[in-house]
Amino acid sequence: MAETAKYAAINGGTLFTDMKTQLSLPKTKRTVACAYGFVFIFIVVTTFLAFSPSPNSSSPWFTNIFSLSKEDVGTSYRSQFSSVFSNLFPRSSKNNFEQPHLDKKGLIVEKSENYTQNDDKGGVLENPFNSSSVLSDKESSVVKNETLSEVFDDKVGILMGNQSVNQTFDDKDGIFKANQSSIEGSKSAAAVNQNKNRDFDDKVGIFKANQSTIEKKSAPKFSSKGKTANVEKKRDVDLVKSLLNCDFFDGNWVKDESYPLYKPGSCSLIDEQFNCFINDRPDSGYLKMKWKPNACSLPRLNATHMLELLRGKRLVFVGDSLNRNMWESLICILKNSVKNQKKVYEESGRHHFRTEAFYSFIFEDYKCRVEFFVSPFLVQQWEVADKKGGKKETLRLDLIGESADKYKDADILVFNTGHWWTHEKTSLGKDYYQEGNHVHNELNVLEAFLRALTTWGRWIDAHINPKKTFVLFRGYSASHFSGGQWNSGGACDSETEPIKNDTYLTPYPSKMKVLEDVFKGMKTQVSYLNITRMTDYRKDGHPSIYRKPNLTLKERRSQWRYQDCSHWCLPGVPDAWNELLYAELLVRLHQKHEKKS
């Protein structure tokens, strides 16, 4: 009864009715369960395929979607599902052509199989433009493989297929390597990527928007040596042409910190009385002045080049102690440029240049000589018997200086005279000037100067071959005795600046006007270095009392009976005279080439 009651119909129903009623609910639940089960299985399969794709899969769909390496499993699940989602539901084609760049978190993806292994001689850079590189958007997404060839930086201007990257960069410019071969150990993906890029920058350089290593690689290479040489040659020719019609002597002194042409105190050949720096002159502004013509720019004296111009030649200075001033300056300038100083020496081994009538410096490597002959008047100093049976000095206005035969074959001659014509004997002109056996009782100094230079001019025309020898004459160098003449208390030791107002310049010397008249009567062309005006500005450039070292100011003033306001400190003003000489040589060389062509 109990068993029967256990299976009895409820509410009076039959067994069949009861069974139908009981089975209707499970049928509905089973349908729902199947639906949920299907969804669950789909999710499981999808997730399995997402994280464990077949290594042998050849499907491009799977390859493009599921290309994350095993090292990336630790990356956030959000990023993984985002990658899958973006491939299942790709963005519009408009977004696919945006500029590709690395995500800020530095996700590194495995290179696709169609990238070949590259040589690593030039350094390694993980390709930031992989088929699976991540765009730095608010949400990371994977760029499709086929997009790579269209998204390369448009500023570089090169479209590159996925397979062409490794073919374009060679050892010299850096090599793209597979990311999976450069990531090691437990380093974070972002750190590795950042370090590798930094390493590439150090070795090769940084890719910039307006610069491409691919373009540099493929561009034809030209040798710049010949082009540079041609540019420099044209520049030099243009410079020389600018000198042709330039008045070198109309200009001003300008300050130039690159001067002097040689280091003060570096040239032991300078006469002690000219070496103001060694003699403790306290100011230095006189060393930093350059002569600048108004109509052109003088080339800085290139000592090595000038020695090349003088190779195998003789350059001879003839004149008084002011030409010795210029000669010493040039010796120092040229000697300073020679590496082996032992190959520059005075022919007789002398180191002091005040007592002899002739000096010759030899530049052995260039087989050239730079010489000085003492001849303060350019004509001969003479002696005749006086009425008392003794001898007296005279000046032979009709005879060229006795050393003339020794320098007549020189290649370059630089003459001067002037200062000795201001001394008492020459100024007064009484029983001093001689022509033949006749001694003039009295002769005006300007007339005597004219006759002497006429003798010089005739000798030049008769003995100098202008095709071989270049003749120059350096004009009168201004003196600056203030408060008296050279022998009557004149001084210049307080001068530290050049004259800046032309009204304070002295009139052009009458003796130089006589000289110019002599030039006009000569057959031989003489280049006139008219330095009178340029030296007149430089009242600051004289040795004055700085003519001996290691003296107190009081001792200096008492040491010298006369101040020297005629000669020039070295380095100093005569260096500029030699720059003028250098410019004259360049012009002459250019004119010779023009005649030949």
TrEMBL record:
Annotated compartments: Membrane
Residue ranges occupied by any Trichome birefringence-like N-terminal domain in the UniProt entry: 245-297
Domain Trichome birefringence-like C-terminal, first and last residues per copy: 298-583
Gene Ontology annotations for the cellular component aspect, listed alphabetically: membrane
Bilayer-crossing regions: 32-51
Keywords: Membrane, Signal-anchor, Transmembrane, Transmembrane helix
Protein name, entry field: Trichome birefringence-like N-terminal domain-containing protein
Organism: Solanum stoloniferum
